[in-house]
## 1
Amino acid sequence: MTIKKVLIANRGEIAVRIIRTLRKMDIKSVAIHSEADSRAMHVMFADESVCVGPANAAESYNNIKNVIAAAEVTGADAIHPGYGFLSESPKFSEMVEQHRLTFLGPTGEQIEQFGSKMTAKNIMESAGIPVVPGSKEAIESFEEAAKMLKTMDFPVLFKGTECGGGRGQRIAFSAEQAEQMFTEAQAEAEAMTKDKRMYVETYLPNPRHIEFQVIGDGKGNVISLGTRDCSVQRRHQKVVEEGPANLDPDLCKEIEQKLCAVLGKYHYRSAGTVEFLESNGKLYFIEVNTRVQVEHPVTEAITGRDIIEMQIRLANGEPLPKQSEIVIKGHAIESRITAESPFEFIPCPGRIDQFLAPGGPGVRVDGALYPGWIIPPWYDSLATKIISWAPSREECIRVHKLALMETTISGIETSLPLQLWILDQPDFVSGNFGTQWLEKALKTR
Amino acid sequence: MKDKLNRDKFIFNQKAIKYLADVVSESNLTEIEYKCADISIKISKNGPAAAPMQNYAPMPMQMPLQPSEIPLKQALEAKPASEKRSVTAPVVGKIYVAEKPGLPALIKVGDKVEVGQKIFIIEAMKVMNNVKSTESGTISKILVQDGQAVEFGQKLVELE
């Protein structure tokens, strides 16, 4: 069956971006929104819209019952989850399919398997993909951790198995600190996820964050759409993403082949990202994100492929392109422009007075801003993304800088000045940075 | 009532803006901001000239006089004034006016309903959900038809 109408179970820039592809493919779109978002751009962009609950996301965007009911009453035949909200809920994927709707993402089982860091790590390790040395099973007490530490080098990282975004984790630089750091991390993890299972792993100082974009047909074929470097981070949140990553081509190819083989074995369906840390020329697997990501336009720019379109075509039963058909060309950089004060990182929801988007060859804007729109305080602070492409990284930095300089957003504070500052740093220009670079560089600003 | 209040505010703002503009033009100040309760007025002498590229400053299209800003909280909570009491849909789905097809509707115009009384059924994901009245009073208007799709918060009935 061919998909004719898609409900987008999301908001903001990603919902607008998905609707753009739907329009291109002549597919009808249904937006969902909370009461706080009835004037949001994604609602205006869609062919139809359904209010699914109050401002609180738990009762609206994360309300599985109302989201599926919205698809049913509008006669949508597929649901695209975007990122965040319900995108990584195995239950949602399953329930969507139980209601005979197509879920434009992996199966519930795959989200469960690859979404669990521990399970994913074991799967990757058994496929010969290096992982950060550490516990293979969850540990719950410091006594268990202490046994592991005898065979490990410091510093080590203690982390809650279900935690993300840098919370529920602590670094111990020596054996003396270990117990205290473990206890602190576990308390934070338990408070956050109600789960006290932890793992311990070797802590890599200032590694690069490298990721592979993959996509599968759910029948055993998986291809790689190349790499991205997302090392410019603050508090484990990506700030600038670029691609392709500067990696040894042989290493890159070897990892790509192993990844596609193992994901193919699990019949991985739809888009996904496999994340690694890079240290001293070696890659260590960290996690799989079973969804499209904020930074997917970087890959779209360097491959010339529309990932959302690929997801829909695959769901329609069309064949996956061959790996040899994927050609990486040029370089792309994405900046996340957030509604935050640029150097103090204080959220600034509020009314947009002026918004002038940049333009010109190689420049793309994925956003959901318009003058008069009030960025509500209930959701994340991502206001717009600016993506630039050029034949080389050097030219791309230049094009990107000009694009950011052309951009005007007034009425609220945004991270634009921070983004411009980053592009000016000699370490950024020379590519000499890891995941801790930005926070350190900001301290000496 | 509401209009009069707004007009008073506006007159106040006009006076204030004029006064502040005079202060700015007679002094060396380039910008002045005045805040009082939920009103804030900002006046700057000149918008920046086309900034040279090396400044990296995005060029804001600043008005010489900025109107008083609507406080965020107020703007976020602004809802169209509705005098009539109503009951809204608690879930998204397909609405039914009767217990079963063929049976009479649960309510009709002129009926008296109490808080908690079942007035509709909404089918969501193959599950029937009872819609209970959140108001008591007399039904003056039924705003939905049997079998229609309703969204969260959609007005279903009006009461007197």
## 2
Amino acid sequence: MFCIMAWRNIWRNTRRTAVILTAIVIGVWSMILLGSLMRGMLTTMVENGIATLTGHVQVHAKGYRADPVIENSMTSPGRAEAAVNKLLPPGGHWTARVRVNAVASNARHASGVTLVGIDPAKEAKVSFIGRAVNKGRYLKPEDKYGVVVGKALLDKFETRLGHKLVVMSQDTTKQIASRAFTIVGVFRADLEATEKEFIFITMPAAQDMLKLKDGVSEIAVLLPKEDGVAAFAQGLSSALPGSYEVQTWQELQPMLEAYLSIFNGFIAIWNLVIFIAMAFGIVNTTLMAVYERIREFGLLKALGMKPRWIVQEVLTQSLFLLLLGMALGNLLAWLSIRALSGGIDLSAFAAGAEYFGMSRVIFPEIAAGDVVLANVVVFFLGLLVSAYPALKASRFTPVKALAHN
Amino acid sequence: MSVDAKMAWRNLWRNPRRTILTVAAIAFACLLLIFMLSWQFGSYEAMINAAVKIHTGHLQVQAKGYQEKQSIRQVVPDPQAVAKILAKAPGVSHYTFRSDAFSLVSSKQRTYGVLVVGIEPEKEAQVSTLKKIISRGSYLLAGDKNGALLGHLLAKNLQVGLGDEVTVLGQGRDGSIAATVLKVKGIYRSGMDQFDRSSLQISLQNFDDTYTMMGAVHEVVAVCRSLDAVPQAKDFVAAKLTGLPPKHPLVALDWDQLMPGLLQGIKIDMISGLIFYFLLLLVVAFSILNTFLMSIFERMHEFGVLMALGTTPGRLTKLVLLESTALTMVGVAAGLVLGCAVTWYFQDQGIALTGASDILRQYGLPHRMYPQLSLLSALLGPAAVLAITFLTALYPALKIRRLSPLKALSYV
């Protein structure tokens, strides 16, 4: 009975209901849409971070993270590789890398870079580089003197495919090892900084140049699902002796983790702000609806209706209003996210996006958590603020209410 | 006060609760916008200043093309001539010379590729924060023969401390080998990992000897009295530069050209902020639309009587608009006062963003941020609120114009 009464009461004044409904719909829509855009931006950021030679989990020799130099490499990685192989869930991939600071130079330019020695086939399954080469070719296992560099580095060095690049770095005997490579491929990355930082050669070439023998700097693991990361890292850590360190991407990239928590906080605050703006409308509209019916409430009370029932009736009205607004708002948000699924292109601001480490295209992403948060905020706080007019309505005494006009 | 104004004001307080709630909604929107805009402007200014202080200065004179290629051969051959121009440029408060060369720097244990920068210690201290961020040891003296300053991360990577020796190996301006031995004199901590990891400063005189610069430098860096003074100073310098020998063309670049990402990044932030505010205003508008609508529809009978007595619909429209304007004004005024008070409080106290300090550090920002209340940030938000509430109030007010007394009187 409450439901029928409440529902009919809502539509006694169509225009008023439509207006407040619009406020709720816009509120819910903007919460979910903006949340999804921010979430999409973040996810791309995290995915790029993981694909840019981080992976989900990495294994290093103890001390490498604090001081990433060649002396802190894993001299015989066989044991760690076996442990990774044993624990790796189906669908996961891993690869080993040599990673050292180096200086790249040609006749005209010199610059500090990170030299990465990779196993081409395995690396392609773990990080971005396998699909990022867009000029020339990717490395082949037998390449002894081939190097793949980023587009930005190529431009900075005023060089091109087929030309030589001299790479210098310190080898395990503390001597400067230097070797000339031929540029066989050029890769593009989402961030120019990545294109300038990394140059890739094959692992045997790196091990030979740096006198590493079989040693590697790191083993990177990409898991099929992200939620298994902590458990996998724990398992791997306990399977390996103390001379190894196992770290998750959150530990390897603390900045990404910090961005995540800032944005989560921001989404929550934004939801609250929008809600407050709409709460004034909800309270005011409900209050008006209640005052209009003051005689009616007085009569009902005189006829023996309990105050509790009046509260319940008014709250049910708000409930319907909120549910309807939420349903429409969610639908609208879903439609606009679908419409934007091609991504929002920030190329016009590419340098600006780069400055903040954002990718050039933002794809909205629906995260269940964000949608639930927005709806929960609107629903519960909406009912909470409606309590004020509801209680007001229940306190009208029959005499006063009937005297009111 | 005219009769209309008096009537409007009294009408407002016929339903004080509703009026107060509506005023509160408007005030809330104003308060939020003032605070947020002040916050955004404050952080932009802090970002620009931080980047300018540590890296580029407001204005630089370089050889044409140096910004893109950064080759050691692209020099300002006669820095004194440029200095004379800068000394006369309006708004420029300080300037200094710098030279850069990418070189190999080795300690006993380690070797890293590093940007070696030649600075004039005394003038540099007026242009950048370098002197202030020295965390161990001391700053360079003018004409220092072999002292070096380096970032704490580079010191850690090289495994060197104060007083240790490092050797530098690079290429001179004439293509010869440039090599020297330096002593670590000071270690600095800017907070920006990239900077602390990859640069080493020596005196310009030492740089000149080591890299056979023959008196030339790479950059003449200037700071202006304020950001607003930059364009004028730049125009002046650019015009005067054309008077120098045309054999080595020089260019004047401002901080935006030196760091193209920064201004664009700010624009992205600004635009996304505007979208947020627009949506917020839309929600506020619909939240208060009902107040305006109700205040008219519940008085239809009254309007009918007034019209029957000879009041024109135009005057009624005016009355209703006066009411909503008064309401809005009260809300905006309250929001303005509260918003400025809240912003001013935080401008004084700062807001600690401890969780984000690692990220802020990378942009040279402190973990305590200060909103900047300005005329623009204080008035922009309330103006937008005023505009949108006025538009909202227009719809019900215009409904009255088409009202006939008969229809109004029979309205229930």
